[in-house]
Each structure stands twice: as C-alpha cells, then as structure tokens.
Amino acid sequence: MKHISIIVPKGAILGSLEGSRQILSQVNDFFKMKGQPAVFDIRLVGLSKATAVSGGLFTVNTDVTIADVDRTDLIIIPAIDGVITEALERNSEFVPWIKKQYEQGAEIASLCLGAFLLASTGLLEGRKCATHWLAENDFRMMFPEVDLVTEKIITDEHGIYSSGGAFSYLNLILYLIEKYVGREIAIMAAKVFAIELDRKDQLSFTIFQGQKAHEDEQIRNIQEFIEKNFHEKITIDQLADMQAIGRRNLERRFKKATANTIVEYIQRVKMEAAKFSLETSRENVNEVMYKVGYSDTKAFRTTFKRITGLSPIQYRAKYNRTISVN
Fold first, then answer.
1. Structural domain tally of the chain?
2. Is residue 210 situated within a structural domain?
3. Which residues contact 25 (CB under 8 A, 6 or more apart)?
C-alpha cells in the first residue's frame, strides 16, 4: 500500500486539497468494488490538528501532524492562497520535514501555487517546475535557480512532480494514479470525475504579462514602446538606438530584467494582440496577421501555434463565442 500525505498548509486552497483526496479515495473504492484491498493510505497532514484554509472560510481537521509521520511515499502540496511571501513564512515548518521525507525516498507533487512552497525547500534547484501562469513573474523573481516551464501542465523529474494553473492539478493526480496503479484505473477516475485525460499544456489559457517588476528604467521604457507599437516592424537596433545602449548590452539587460529575449517579447506581445482579435472580432486570420505586424503567413501561424499550442483557426473556434454559436 502506498502511503500518501496530503499536507494542509495554513491558507491552503481547499479545492486542490479536497479534490486530490476525493480522486485518490475513489481509486480505493474501485479496488474495493472488485473485492481487492485499497491501494492508497491517504492522510491529511498538518502543522496542527485544525488548520484554517481558503482565507479562513473553512477549517480542515487533519488526520495527523508532521510530528506523527516518520516516513511517507508521496507528499502532495496543494495550492496556497494570499500573499505568497506571508504564506511561505506561515508554513516554513513544513520545509525541513518535506526535505527529510524526500531524502528518505518520498516523492513530492506540488499543485498550482503549491510550487512556491516546494521551491522554498531548495529541492527544485536546476530542475523543471510548473505553476499557474499568473504567478510566472513572481516565481521567477523569487526562485531564479528553478527552470520554470509555465507552458506545461505536468512536470516529472527525479521523483518531483508539479502541475500548472488551477484545475490542471487534476491532470497531475490522474498522471500519478496511472503511474502507481495503471492506465485503466486512471481512465476510470477521469470518467467518474469528467476530467479531460492527457492534456499536455496550458498554452492556450496563458495571457502574457510582461515582467516589469524590475529596476531597469530603460528596459521598462523599451517594453512599453513594444507594447504600444506592436503593429509595426520593430528591430533590436532601433530599440538600442532609442535608449543609446549597445545592442549586446541591451540584449543582456533585457533578458535579465524580463526573462525573455527581445525577439521573444515582441512575439509574445504580438500574439497576445492576435489572440484578442481572434477572441472578439470577425476578422479573418490574414486580417489579424496584418493587424499585428506580420506579412508572412507561415511565420505568423508557426509563431502563433508555438506560443498558444493551437493554430489561429483552432484558437478562434475555441474562444470566439460569437462564431462558435453560429
């Protein structure tokens, strides 16, 4: 039997905590229905026996505290709420316990913003991690040593797992179920809870937010220029001349400040504008392409799909309500 510890951080988001427990408990029920023993020993583990979650709206009564758990097989870290730095401080007592369990062979899975608590252990240094795309800028600033992959729904590296934004944690739980007890059971769980199985990325959900929480005023001026003039052809040399900065120095400073190259930033801004047009207008793909400053159809479609995971036509069909209902 695999021992699963779902930790209950102070200020946890109840949905990912209880949702994980429900799905894993359902797997036990599948086996019981077949006259077989349960496969998971699921426990809620807290710093105390009663923990306020979801902004104090609910209280979770845990099964045990971390002092009672000497060894476990899997730790699940649910999403945390509120000001992240304060949430990490409130839950700092979990950190040495998580590290000790990992050193003893436990696997760890963070759900959505639970990635911040996982990263605070230092176990993610040099490793890939996913989290909610809304938290990308804050995460990069706090944990620059972590390879953040916000486009991913799931990461799996050296017994450490993470999930992307919000309800994508469901996909990680199914992924773990498949790994531990097989695909047939994972499919059954997906059907019972109406979860789309095998979703690989969250690209189509992502809204690009340029990182401006830095101290480099010249770089921020360039970011604002790009965002106001995305429909025009913008070159790196042009931007360098505007701020009287050498090209190589500009590229280095821009990457350091924004976590994007200048070309990536321009593309992301253009694609964000294209997404908005496809969501809200009846303009055809070529009209949208010209509107955001592209003249090469292949380049536009290739870039759009790389950034969103969908072709422009697929994206429009998915998100343009006016067109989809006609």
1. 2
2. no
3. 40, 42
